[in-house]
Every structure is written in C-alpha cells, then in structure tokens.
Amino acid sequence: MRLIDLSSPVDASLWEPDPVEHHVLTPREGALHMSEEMRAHFGVDLDPDDLPDGEFLSLDRLTLTTHTGTHVDAPSHYGSRAGYGDGVPRHIDRMPLDWFLRPGMVLDLTDASTGTIGADRLEKEFARIGRRPDPLDIVLLHTGAQRHQGTQRYFTDFAGLDGPALHLLLDLGVRVVGTDAFSLDAPFGDIIARYRASGDRDVLWPAHMIGRDREYCQIERLAHLEDLPGPYGFRVACFPVKIAGAGAGWTRAVALVDE
Questions:
Q1: 185: which of 39, 152, 204, 229 lies 20 to 30 Å off by Cα?
Q2: pLDDT for 97-129, tens place per residue?
C-alpha cells in the first residue's frame, strides 16, 4: 500500500488571517516546567538537575483556530440549528467515524477561475472520467489553489462550489467533500460583490448554508491532490481530531493506494 499525504501544515511562519502562535519549550525548559508543575499540583519535589543532561521533554504550545491547516468542518460550524433530525447540528466529536475512511474521487477543476464552480462543470468532469461518485465516496476538488499556500492570495484567489453543485454531490449520497482551497465556498470578496450586485441571499456562502438543512462535512485546505494516481481507485482517511463541542477538527488527510 502506498500512502499519499494530502495535508497542508500548521506553520506559524506562513501568512494567516488569524496568525498561528507557536511557542516551544526546549528540553531544558521542559525539565524546569515539569519540576514546577509536579511541586505545585502533586507535592512532589524533583531537582531538574538530577535528570540526564538536566533535560526532560520539549513542549509545544500553539494558539490557532480549528480552521488552520487541513481540517474537517462539522455540521455545527454551519449554524446553530439544523433542518433535519432533532434540529441540533452535530459537533465534530459526534460525527460517525465511517464517514472518514472511504473510497475517494478527485475532480480536476484546475481550469476554474476565481469565483464559483457550478453543477454543469461537475457533470462535465464526471463525463470525462466516466463515472459519478458512489454514496459515501469522499469527493476531493482539485482547484489548484495550493499554489498560493502561505500567501495572502491563498485566501482571495480560488474557486468554490455554488449551491446547485453542492446539492448535486449530496443528492448522489456524498457526505464528505474536500477542497485544496481555503474554503469550499468562493472567496469572501467574490461572494460579497455578487451579493451587492444581485441582492440574492442564495449567493452568500451556499456551500456552508446548505449544511444547515443537509448534514455533511467539508475538508478544507487539502494539499498534493495532483499526486493522486487517478480520479479514483484509492481510499481517503481523514479522521478529525476529537475536540469536544467543536465545529471543526484538524486532520492528517491521507490517500491509501493499493499496489
């Protein structure tokens, strides 16, 4: 089996609208920290200099959102109410694990310009590759947005799905849709410009708003989709981190290719 990393990093050196703060305690600082914590919380005294080399373990502290790096959006991210089930959208820790280990399909949408991708474009790609996704397949959108990763353009120059395109995927039984872009919707500036021109609320983040009435998850900020061996014939593992009550969780998304 060959494994293909489909994840983008959490990297404090890259440009983010919500900057990542990454503080590292060295092994020596970790020894001092451990000694202080053991004394304060458990009444145990240990001189850090008694440790080999006077060092213990390094420790990383990060401040970031659950939408930094490759992550899975839960239904609760889309709004406080759901138009299905008991009316309460599920958080990321309540999602069924079997959604996140499934056959994958990647759609080549690298010709899309900044803005929206419609259902007709998806149908054209299904015709090109000779099949549609099966129910519960994980569909990945290769838009080429990764080329701007680490820059401000990553957050402004990409293509996302319009409402009919997402409905098409959900009608086919897809429950996890991924993209290499910052968002499954079009960029903020594009959405707001189209809303101001039309006054049509349906253009306001449809890929997210539809999630209030149809339960599904998004994987955003994928990477290396060009490394996949073909449009299908692989599985995707993208289990989200189990954060209680959260609207999203980070994932180390990986493609599994049998050889």
A1: 229
A2: 999 999 999 999 999 999 999 999 999 999 999
Query: pLDDT per residue over 167-189, tens digit each?
Result: 999 999 999 999 999 999 999 99
Whether 70 and 58 share a structural domain: no
Question: What gap in Å lies between CA 140 and CA 192, rounded to an integer?
Answer: 25
pLDDT > 70 in the chain, percent: 100
Instruction: Find the domain containing 53 and state its range.
Output: 21-63
What confidence tens digit (pLDDT) does each residue in 125-142 have?
Answer: 999 999 999 999 999 999
Domain count for the chain: 2
| Residues with a known catalytic role | 77
Q: Which residues pair with 2 in a beta bridge?
A: 257
Report the alpha-carbon distance of residue 46 to residue 44 in Å, rounded.
Answer: 7
| Vertex 216: Cα angle to 176 and 225 (nearest 5) | 20
Q: Give this prediction's pTM.
A: 0.95
Kindly give the pairing relationship between strand 59-63 and strand 115-117. Answer: unpaired
Question: Which stretch of DSSP H or E encloses residue 59?
Answer: strand 59-63
Residue 167, both tokens: 């409905």
Contact 90, 223 (CB under 8 A): no
Query: Among all chains, which residue has been given the structure tokens 């992550």?
Result: 71
How far apart, in Å, do the first and last CA atoms of the chain sit? 5
